[in-house]
Design a protein that fits this description.
Blueprint lengths: L1 E6 L5 H16 L6 E6 L11 H9 L16 H4 L2 E4 L2 H9 L8 E4 L19 H28 L1
Parallel strand pairs: 1-2, 1-3, 3-4
Helix pairs in contact: 1-5, 2-5
Bound molecules: 4-nitrophenyl phosphate.
4-nitrophenyl phosphate binds next to loops.
Length: 157
């Protein structure tokens, strides 16, 4: 299974989701069964590492995302990934706009997997440190739900 997390800049929310979800996969013993990546719909930060505030917030939870580098959503992603998960509604709209009709991926909001039907992970970029903590809390909850979904799908394969 292959999972892609998508936000606007790929320096705050989606690299945080990638790091947290990898840690949850490891705890679940599923690291070898699931490929994980993240990207942004925008190109402003391509090649850059995560925002220092996202790095610090993740580090406080024992997660190191310092090696990640931002990239932009690419046409090949639609064929490669099984799940393309947006952090907010704008990201979701941008993903859908670039989506070819042949794409079979599940495209939706990440927080669906936290049992939140229409909720976004809010953009923390122009806010303070607490915003980054809130992002991680939401991501942790959705990661648990996504692990459960993948576990069920993998057991049916
Ligand atoms: P992200 O946060 O989409 O969670 O990576 C942002 C990063 C950069 C900008 C906005 C949001 N920006 O406007 O440059």
């Amino acid at each position: 299974m292959r999972v892609l997390f998508v936000c606007l800049g790929n320096i705050c929310r989606s690299p945080s989701a990638e790091g947290v979800f990898r840690a949850h996969l490891a705890q679940a013993g599923l690291t070898d069964r699931v490929e994980v990546d993240s990207c942004g719909v925008g190109d402003w930060h391509v090649g850059k590492g995560p925002d220092p505030r996202a790095l610090d917030a993740a580090r406080r939870r024992g997660i190191d995302i310092s090696a990640l580098r931002a990239r932009q959503l690419a046409p090949t992603d639609y064929q490669h990934f099984d799940y393309i998960l947006a952090m907010d509604h704008d990201n979701l709209e941008a993903i859908r706009q670039g989506c070819p009709s042949s794409c079979r991926a599940h495209i939706g909001l990440f927080l669906e997997f936290a049992g939140e039907r229409d909720r976004a992970v809010p953009d923390p970029y122009y806010g303070g440190e607490q915003g980054f903590e809130d992002v991680l809390d939401l991501i942790e909850a959705a990661s648990d739900g996504l692990i459960e979904e993948l576990r069920q799908r993998l057991s049916r394969q």
